[in-house]
From TrEMBL:
Annotated organism of origin: Mangrovibacillus cuniculi
A GO biological process held by the record: establishment of competence for transformation
Name of the protein: ComGF family competence protein
Keywords linked to the UniProt accession: Competence, Membrane, Transmembrane, Transmembrane helix
Transmembrane segments: 43-64
Any one GO cellular component localisation term in the record: cell surface
Major subcellular location class: other
Keyword Protein biosynthesis: no
Cellular localisation: Cell surface
Domain of life: Bacteria
């Protein structure tokens, strides 16, 4: 049995009605599902945007400051000197001061001396050699307190930095 043929004009009419119906449903969903942007939503989005901008500027400012510090040669030298001195003081048997000098006696018997020489702090082992460890300084003061030694260094930019070597007899 064959299906009866549907006239072409009828097919066009039903397709047109179907398209119209689908479009009406889509338009209804698009137009009526949006309730609008309320004042509260506007304020929240403005507050979020302001917070993001504020956070971004603070992070950029902090990043610029840290970048300047890291590229400052005296700051880098100071950090390296500080780490080196702390590491060496941990390996020392005895730490002492004499005439504004820091003297460490090591386990193998070597005496390591840190002293100001001109505008540098130099390191000497058994009063031999000349190893500059900190450059461009104006002054160095070594203070002994109970249980620690404080080293104050002044740079040509007139700022002071100090470190504490602990575990001193």
């Amino acid at each position: 049995m064959e299906k009866p043929a549907i006239p072409f004009q009828f097919q066009q009419q039903t397709m047109a009605k179907l398209k119209k119906r689908v479009c009406e449903q889509i338009n209804y969903r698009i137009v009526w599902s949006q309730k609008g942007f309320t004042l509260l939503e506007s304020l929240l989005s403005l507050m979020l945007f302001t917070f993001i901008i504020l956070l971004t500027t603070i992070c950029l400012q902090w990043n610029i400051q840290k970048g300047e510090e890291l590229y400052n040669q005296s700051y880098l030298e100071w950090e390296m000197f500080q780490h080196y001195l702390v590491d060496e003081s941990r390996r020392a048997l005895h730490i002492d001061t004499l005439n504004n000098q820091l003297i460490m006696t090591m386990k193998n018997g070597d005496k390591i001396k840190y002293e100001k020489y001109g505008n540098v702090i130099r390191r000497r082992v058994n009063d031999k050699g000349h190893e500059p460890v900190l450059l461009g300084i104006n002054g160095m003061i070594v203070n002994r307190t109970q249980g620690s030694i404080e080293l104050e260094v002044s740079y040509s930019l007139t700022f002071y930095k100090s470190i504490v070597v602990r575990g001193v007899d």
